[in-house]
Amino acid sequence: MIGARNVTLAYGKRILFDEVNINFVKGNCYGVIGANGAGKSTFLKILSGEIEPNKGSVEITPGERLAVLKQNQFEFDDDTVLNTVMKGHKKLWEIMHEREAIYAKADFTEEDGMRAGELEGEFGEMGGYEAESNAGSLLSDLGVTENYHQSLLKDIPGNLKVRVLLTQSLFGNPDILLLDEPTNGLDIETIGWLENFLADYENIVLVVSHDRHFLDAVCTHVADVDKQKIKLFTGNYTFWYESSQLMSRQINDKNKKVEEKRQALLDFIARFSANASKSKQATSRKKALEKLTIEDIQPSNRKYPGIIFQPLREVGNQILNVENLSKKLDGRVLFDKVNFSLNKGQKVAFLSKDPLAVTSFFEIVNGNQTADGGMFEWGTTITKAYLPMENNEFFTEGLTLLDWLRQFVPPNITDADEPFLRGFLGKMLFSGDDITKKTNVLSGGEKVRCMISRMMLQNPNVVVLDQPTNHLDLESIQSFNEGCNIFPGVVLITSHDHTFMQTVANRVIELTPKGIIDRLMTFDEYMEDARVKLLREEMYN
């Protein structure tokens, strides 16, 4: 067990936590959610002892080992990859080195022999004799191949360092596992492996993540950080979100009879309890939901932005034609022989094993880069809105939010006065004096929300989204996802957010160095299709 007792933390006048009391128990995985800046990562640091609260304490069951996903990629630069992982089990690492130091002595005494015997016993109980092979297996499972295991951490690619630190936190079966954004830098296959690993994990896990599919796959409970408190809710993220939205609607529906509301809630709980039996966390989540009472369901206090794209006109028959498009970077083929046409009603998920391929493709079809070969053509009826992955070039001048948005008013809009512009900013939760804030001091999430305001202002019938969930909190991601679902136009999207890709797309195009794979199916169907798997191997080899 790990828990907080009357934990209070403030930075000046800003209070993050006020008298927080909460327990986390064995067998459960807790998804820690909350708006950007609410204190999710800070709370994990309080639990780990990295941050001392102003008041209160953290209690851990005596003898239980806590492991944390480290964020500092330079801390272990001079260690080998394998040693970095094994350092995750501090006690085992200390015993290993004390044991080696004793055996290396030239004047080995009887006392040394006694101590060595004690250490051998402890070493064996901790699984020390299998530690190196276990660490190696974990690394390989997380995509760090054996040829890197004896390399220094500073000498391996940056994306692999993240995986090594994740392996370090998982190593040795810790009693309490604290993970802050563990899916960062992982591909879809590796995220799937981590989901399965945590679904089978029998100890305590607390995880901060903006990946809703990941939270749904691993979490038995949600810990909601809101208004300086933390509340526990049974179920995964989707259950928390849908139940809180249902309760909010029922509270607002004053005309509905109490018994009807009660039955609707009971039906909702029963439906999710049945679905839980199909999940990876089936047993623990189903049991938890079966014990749930209506009184446990509470409305969310969160504010959700209004992301609504309203086309001025429907797309015509010609949307986008691409012929033999190709692009190289530093001699590396990003994609080649790209040929396809878009049709009405299509929402296309783009992916590639090369992270730069889709970004380069989107930049090309939006006129910001040139291809090495081939051509593309947009239809005459098309009005595009593009959300690039990098947006810093849009925020170089210190304009107010109001003046910044005014730059992007389309020529056909002649009455873009302050109330008109405030409406678009207000939908993205910029209200009151927020519009006088200077754009050069905005956070990453605020910049993305400004860019979405800019997109909505265009009244597009085609939206192009390159990693749209970057920097956004779960509330904004949820709203963005729903906005794309109801959008009547065409969507081109690439995202690390599995749920976004699965729920929006009805077509998948994968860019490879040998051409494209193009299928009219959902993202999950594509990833699970046996014929597609064989074709992917062929295209990348």
Structure description:
The protein is α/β, with parallel strands linked by helices and about 550 residues long. Among the domains are: about 80-170, no CATH class; about 235-295, no CATH class; about 320-540, 3-Layer(aba) Sandwich (Rossmann fold). About 40% of the residues lie in helices and about 20% in strands. The radius of gyration is 26 Å and the shape is globular. The mean pLDDT is about 90.
SSE-based structural type: alpha/beta
Sheet-strand content, in percent, reads: 15-25%
Helix content: 25-40%
Main sheet: strands, sense, barrel: 6 strands, mixed
How are the strands of the largest sheet arranged? 5-6-7-3-8-9
Shape assignment: globular
Summarize the structure.
The protein is an alpha/beta fold and 541 residues long.
Layout: helices, strands, pairs:
Layout: E1 2-11, E2 14-24, E3 29-33, H1 40-48, E4 55-60, E5 66-68, H2 81-86, H3 90-103, H4 110-125, H5 131-141, H6 158-170, E6 176-180, H7 188-199, E7 204-208, H8 212-218, E8 221-226, E9 229-234, H9 237-252, H10 258-276, H11 282-290, E10 320-329, E11 332-341, E12 347-351, H12 355-365, E13 373-378, E14 384-387, H13 401-406, H14 418-427, H15 444-457, E15 462-466, H16 474-486, E16 490-494, H17 498-504, E17 507-512, E18 515-519, H18 523-528, H19 530-540
Parallel strand pairs: 3-7, 3-8, 5-6, 6-7, 12-16, 12-17, 14-15, 15-16
Antiparallel strand pairs: 1-2, 1-4, 8-9, 10-11, 10-13, 17-18
Helix pairs in contact: 3-4, 9-10, 10-11, 16-17
